[in-house]
C-alpha cells in the first residue's frame, strides 16, 4: 500500500511539474491554460489518491474524497471563467467574434447611454440657469 | 420532495464526513444547519431537477469512468507536448456545433470539454460552443462527436 501510494504521489508530482514547465514554455495565454489544466485534473487526482491510500479506512479518506470531488467540480468553472474573461480583452479569439453579435450591440447601447447622460446634463444646466 | 430529500442526504454526508464529533449537541447543530441551508435553497428555488440531477444517477458512473479515461489519455498527450516543446503544438480554436437541447446537457458537455486538458470551452451560444484546443486534433476529436453522443445518451 505504501509503495502504491508513493508511486501515485511521485507520478502526481511529475504531472504537476509538467504543468508548471508547460506554463513557462507555452507561447500564449490559451496554450498556457491547457498546461495548467493538467495540474488540476490528473495531477491532483494522483496526489489526493496517493494520500487516500495512505489514510486507509478513516474519516480522512472521506475528507480527501470530498476535496477531490470539489476540485473536479470547480476547476472547469474556474478555467471557463478565465477563458471568458479573456474574451473581453485584446486576447479575444477570432472564432468568438461574429457580425451582429454581443459586441456590436454593446457599443450601440454604450453610445445610447452616452447620449442619455448628455441630455441629463443639459436639463441640469437648464435648471441651474 | 425527492429533490429536498436528496439535498438533505448530500448535506448530511458532507457534514458527517467533515465533523468527526458525534455527540448529541453537535449532531443537533448539524441538523439545524442542514435545515437552514435547505430552507435557504428552497427559498432561492435552487432545489430542482437541475441542481439534483437524480435522473442521471444510474448512468453517471459509466460516463464518469469514460470521461476519466479520456482525461488520463489527454493528460499524457499534453504532458508529452510540454516536454517536446512549443514546436509540437498547433493551437487552434473553432466553433463546435451541438445538437444538445437542454441546458443541463450543454453544461455537462462544455464542462467535460474543459475538464479534458488540451481543450477549453470558452463560450456557449445557443447551439454552438467556442472551443480552444492545444492541438488541431483535439478539435477534430470533438467534431467526431463521441463525447456529445455520450452526453446525449445521458441527458436526452
Q: How much helix, percentage-wise, in residues of chain A?
A: over 70%
Predict the CATH topology of the largest domain in chain B: Ribosomal Protein S8, Chain: A, domain 1
Unreliably modeled segments of chain B: none
Provide the β-strand percentage band of chain A: under 5%
**How does CATH name the architecture of the largest domain in chain B?**
2-Layer Sandwich
**Structural class given helices, strands, pairing of chain A?**
mainly alpha
Instruction: Write down how many β-strands of chain A occur, each being a DSSP E stretch of 2 or more residues.
Output: 0
Tell me, what's the shape of chain B? elongated
**Main beta sheet of chain B: strand number and arrangement?**
3 strands, antiparallel
- Give the integer mean of the pLDDT values of chain A: 77
What is the number of independent domains of chain A?
A: 2
Distance from N terminus to C terminus of chain A (CA atoms, Å) equals 86 Å
Distance between the termini of chain B: 23 Å
Count of extended strands of chain B: 3
Strand residue content of chain B: 5-15%
Topology, element by element:
The complex is a heterodimer of chains A (129) and B (156).
Chain A lengths: L1 H24 L3 H27 L3 H28 L15 H27 L1
Helix pairs in contact in A: 1-2, 2-3
Chain B lengths: L1 H18 L4 H20 L16 H25 L7 E6 L5 H13 L3 E7 L2 E6 L2 H9 L1 H10 L1
Antiparallel strand pairs in B: 1-3, 2-3
Amino acid at each position: 500500500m505504501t509503495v502504491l501510494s508513493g508511486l501515485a504521489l511521485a507520478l502526481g508530482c511529475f504531472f504537476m511539474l509538467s504543468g508548471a514547465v508547460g506554463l513557462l514554455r507555452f507561447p500564449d495565454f490559451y496554450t498556457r491554460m491547457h498546461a495548467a489544466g493538467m495540474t488540476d485534473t490528473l495531477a491532483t487526482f494522483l496526489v489526493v489518491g496517493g494520500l487516500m491510500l495512505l489514510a486507509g479506512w478513516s474519516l480522512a479518506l472521506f475528507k480527501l474524497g470530498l476535496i477531490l470531488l470539489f476540485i473536479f467540480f470547480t476547476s472547469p468553472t474556474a478555467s471557463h471563467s478565465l477563458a471568458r474573461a479573456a474574451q473581453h480583452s485584446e486576447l479575444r479569439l477570432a472564432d468568438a467574434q461574429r457580425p451582429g453579435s454581443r459586441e456590436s450591440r454593446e457599443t450601440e447601447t454604450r453610445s445610447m447611454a452616452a447620449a442619455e447622460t448628455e441630455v441629463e446634463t443639459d436639463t441640469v444646466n437648464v435648471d441651474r440657469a | 420532495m425527492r429533490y429536498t430529500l436528496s439535498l438533505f442526504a448530500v448535506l448530511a454526508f458532507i457534514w458527517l464526513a467533515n465533523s468527526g464529533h458525534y455527540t448529541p449537541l453537535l449532531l443537533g447543530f448539524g441538523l439545524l444547519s442542514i435545515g437552514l441551508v435547505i430552507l435557504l435553497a428552497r427559498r432561492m428555488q435552487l432545489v430542482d431537477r437541475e441542481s439534483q440531477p437524480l435522473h442521471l444517477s444510474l448512468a453517471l458512473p459509466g460516463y464518469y469512468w469514460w470521461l476519466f479515461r479520456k482525461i488520463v489519455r489527454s493528460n499524457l498527450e499534453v504532458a508529452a507536448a510540454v516536454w517536446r516543446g512549443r514546436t509540437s503544438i498547433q493551437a487552434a480554436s473553432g466553433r463546435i456545433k451541438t445538437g444538445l437541447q437542454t441546458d443541463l446537457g450543454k453544461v455537462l458537455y462544455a464542462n467535460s470539454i474543459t475538464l479534458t486538458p488540451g481543450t477549453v470551452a470558452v463560450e456557449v451560444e445557443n447551439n454552438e460552443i467556442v472551443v480552444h484546443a492545444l492541438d488541431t486534433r483535439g478539435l477534430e476529436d470533438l467534431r467526431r462527436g463521441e463525447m456529445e453522443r455520450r452526453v446525449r445518451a445521458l441527458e436526452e
